[in-house]
Amino acid sequence: MTHSLNYYVTFIASYSTIQEHGMDRLIGKAHESRVLYYLVGEAHESYFATPTPKILHDYLGHTSLSKLKMIVPGLEQIQVLDCESCHKKTC
Q1: How much is the pLDDT for 88?
Q2: What mean pLDDT do residues 25-52 have?
Q3: How far is the C-alpha of 69 from the C-alpha of 29, rounded, in Å?
Q4: 83, 59 in Cβ contact below 8 A?
Q5: How far apart are CA 10 and CA 30, in angstroms?
Q6: Which of the residues 47, 49, 73, 78 has an alpha carbon 20 to 30 A from that of 39?
Q7: Cα angle at 50 between 39 and 15, to 5 degrees?
Q8: pLDDT at position 9, please?
Q9: 48-57: pLDDT as tens digits
Q10: Are residues 59 and 27 located together in one domain of the fold?
Q11: By the 8 A CB rule, do 9 and 16 touch?
Q12: Number of domains in the chain
């Protein structure tokens, strides 16, 4: 998001914000719970690019599919991520 969409993300202990660089327009806000930040509401979803599950998996350090599904609830239907790197180790 920060590179391709020119947004900047600010992390504070209990919440995070996503803003458009140069315009300071609020794109989204997230609250922290158990060391993860969860986006609040659905009003701003259209501003986000929709990367593939594999790209999300890569960006998040090859996180397991079960954890990825916790972070992105819309991925419940995915059964397998085809990741060559992860075939060599257990994610």
Answers
A1: 67
A2: 70
A3: 20
A4: no
A5: 10
A6: 78
A7: 15
A8: 86
A9: 455 678 878 8
A10: no
A11: yes
A12: 2
Which residue range forms the structural domain that includes residue 68?
50-91
Location of structure tokens 């391709």:
4
DSSP string, 5-69: S-EEEEE-SSEEEEEETTTTEEEEEEEEETTEEEE--STTGGGS----HHHHHHHTTS--HHHHH
- Give residues with Cβ within 8 angstroms of 29, minimum separation 6: 15, 16, 17, 18, 39, 40, 41
Pairing of strands 15-20, 25-33: antiparallel
- Could you tell me if 67 and 45 lie in one domain? no
**Tokens representing 3?**
């590179």
Give, in degrees to the nearest 5, the angle at Cα 27 between 43 and 42.
20
**Cα–Cα distance measured from residue 86 to residue 66, given in angstroms and rounded to the nearest whole number:** 14
Residues 60 and 55: their CA atoms lie apart, in Å, by 8
> Is residue 13 domain-shared with residue 29, that is, in the same domain?
yes
